[in-house]
Specification:
- The chain is built from 15 helices and 18 strands.
- By secondary structure, the protein is an alpha+beta fold.
- It has a domain at about 280-540: Dipeptide-binding Protein, domain 3, CATH 3.10.105.
- The strands form 4 sheets. Strands 1, 7, 8, 9, 10, 11, 12, 13, 14, 15 and 16 form an 11-stranded mixed beta sheet that branches. Strands 4-6-5 form a 3-stranded antiparallel beta sheet, covered by helices on one side. Strands 2-3 form a two-stranded antiparallel sheet.
- Helix 7 runs antiparallel to helix 10 (about 365-375).
- The longest helix has 18 residues, at about 510-530.
- The radius of gyration is 23 Å and the shape is globular.
- The two termini are about 45 Å apart.
Length: about 575
């Protein structure tokens, strides 16, 4: 197997990202960033929310990450381990990382192999409820060989070993700060979770949950000329429209993330001349997640949306397929994204060698066939009220939730009308994004708790390999009270057949076979079973000020991956 890498030294700079003229640390002054989904926590191991992961990436860093062209590049590591350089065992049973010389935490202490070992122990400890546990799937042990060398040993040959400790979802955390936060104690470590000691270009100076985070340049950052900004305000809240206006029209902010707005709206705002819209395609898919368990509030707390109570009708394949057939994906693209969207039925839309042929599904809108499937499943409208029910009196009545966002509410309205046309009763709910994606075990409104029948959102996998993404749908990753409602298996899928496909995928190094197996897992979840109803392959869309230089939009890692290189330029 080959992997595209750029073998840069850990302290090296991508030349394309460098400012036009040499600058000193902090010379560009203050940077204002607006993520309208506010930050809840600065620990990506306790939240799967993109806004939390990306805000954390200003502080916490991995051993390696992907650049804007999907090249794997060293970050805290001295180089990318490969079979050729001896870093990956010839039988693919281990990978050995070496931390680059001189790596320091923001408190001035050295980054050591023990910090890497501890990061693994933290995420895999019983009771932590680690949101990124899929990153550590199949690892038998992580051990410190010496002060700067770490060996990861796998349970079996692992032919894509560059997963754990790679990318913004799997950074290194400091053992000294988190060592008393293992297991159930993880959620109680407020100071560590909101003011982590890191190796990144910035340190936290103030954290107001679900509002604003203030940063200043890390005095111990490895490049003495960076970061170019001395301070950063990372503001949350509002909505995509307000965020876009703040950059493109008023110039109040320098950068705004996730401008999920109709294309004509963005074009109108950009005409003001203060900023520009930037976009790129990767693996970001807007999808409808189907709950295979019963979220009924009539169940006792702690039993809702758990595997002990299967859903009364969404466990029926024909019902899920009918829901998919009743969606006009091209209309959703036209309404919500224009050129920044493409109809899809795939959970894994890229790279091409992992993507299934979904062209027929993505372009098919067939409400009549959907009605036939519901009839086959035993659901008819016997009383003429427009809602189908079966012989046991179970009505096709669903609660459909998503985050508060103009495009998503437009999608909800359209999909509600399409589903009602085929015989569903649909209640809509939208939840503040900071809460919806916040991962708070005490909240009833998180994506993990899933107290609804279906919910809509988008996420993606880092890098070019979907191993950890597809590994999320195993029985052991189902959120539950026992895991503090953390876990990536939102749908509550639990099927040995799927887990066998995953095991085969993880056990082969043949790219053709890996592609076949990845497509099979994707099709199990989407085209074959419609457990995930993918609807739009979304280009990532953000906005930047005309005075902000060095930005390289990256769909394969954190959008803020090279923030140390961002700098102020003249219009």
């Amino acid at each position: 197997m080959t992997i595209r890498t750029a073998l840069l030294g850990a302290a090296a700079t991508l030349a394309v990202a460098a400012p036009l003229a040499a600058q000193e640390r902090g010379e560009s002054g203050h940077l204002n960033i607006l993520y309208w989904q506010a930050v809840s926590i600065l620990n990506p191991y306790l939240s799967g929310g993109t806004k939390d992961i990306e805000a954390s990436s200003l502080v916490l860093e991995p051993l390696a990450r992907y650049d804007q062209d999907a090249n794997l590049v060293p970050w805290l590591a001295a180089e990318i381990p490969t079979v050729e350089n001896g870093g990956v065992a010839e039988d693919y049973t281990s990978i050995t990382w070496t931390i680059a010389e001189g790596m320091e935490w923001s408190d001035g202490t050295p980054v050591t192999a023990e910090d890497v070992v501890f990061t693994y122990e933290y995420c895999t400890a019983d009771g932590t409820g680690c949101a990124q546990e899929g990153k550590f799937q199949g690892i038998a042990s992580v051990e410190a060989v010496d002060e700067r060398t770490v060996r990861v040993t796998f349970e079996q040959p692992t032919f894509f070993p560059w997963v754990a400790f790679v990318g913004a979802q799997s950074p290194i955390i400091q053992k000294a700060q988190f060592e008393n936060c293992l297991g159930a104690a993880a959620a109680t470590c407020t100071e560590a979770n909101t003011r982590p000691v890191g190796t990144g270009p910035f340190v936290v100076t103030e954290f107001l949950p679900n509002d604003v985070v203030a940063f200043e340049a890390n005095p111990n950052y490895r490049d003495p000329a960076k970061p170019h900004f001395s301070t950063v305000t990372f503001k949350g809240g509002g909505d995509a429209a307000a965020a876009a206006r703040a950059v493109l029209e008023t110039g109040e902010f320098d950068y705004a993330w996730n401008l999920q707005l109709a294309p004509d709206v963005l074009r109108s705002m950009q005409a003001a001349g203060r900023g520009e819209v930037i976009s790129a395609f990767g693996t970001l898919v807007e999808r409808i997640e189907v709950n295979l368990t019963d979220p009924s509030p009539s169940l006792p707390e702690g039993e809702r949306s758990t595997v002990a109570h299967p859903h009364p009708f969404l466990t029926i394949p024909e019902v899920r397929e009918a829901m998919s057939l009743a969606i006009d994906r091209q209309t959703l693209v036209d309404v919500g994204y224009g050129e920044a969207g493409r109809p899809t039925c795939n959970l894994v839309p890229a790279p091409d060698y992992y993507a299934s042929d979904d062209s027929e599904c993505a372009t098919t809108y067939d409400p009549e066939r959907a009605k036939e499937l519901l009839e086959q499943a035993g659901f008819t409208d016997t009383d003429g009220d427009g809602v189908r029910e079966n012989a046991d009196g179970v009505r096709l009545s669903i609660l459909y939730q998503t985050s508060t966002n103009a495009v998503r509410q437009d999608f909800q309205a359209l999909i509600k009308s399409w589903w009602e046309e085929i015989g569903f009763e649909v209640e809509l709910r939208n939840i503040d994004a900071a809460v919806f994606f916040g991962g708070d075990a005490g909240s009833p409104d998180t994506i993990e708790k899933f107290y609804a029948d279906v919910q809509m959102y988008a996420n993606n996998f880092e890098g070019t390999d979907p191993t950890s993404y597809l590994a999320a749908y195993t029985c052991d990753k189902i959120p539950s009270p026992e895991t503090q409602w953390q876990g990536q298996n939102i749908n509550r899928v639990c099927d040995p057949a799927y887990e066998e496909l995953l095991a085969q995928f993880q056990a082969t190094g043949d790219q053709e076979e890996r592609s076949r197996l990845a497509r099979a897992m994707n099709e199990y979840l989407t085209l074959d079973n419609h457990i995930i109803i993918a609807i739009v392959d979304r280009g990532r869309v953000s906005g930047k000020s005309n005075t902000l230089g060095g930005v390289l939009l990256n769909t394969w890692d954190s959008e803020l991956w090279n923030i140390a290189d961002w700098h102020r330029i003249s219009e």
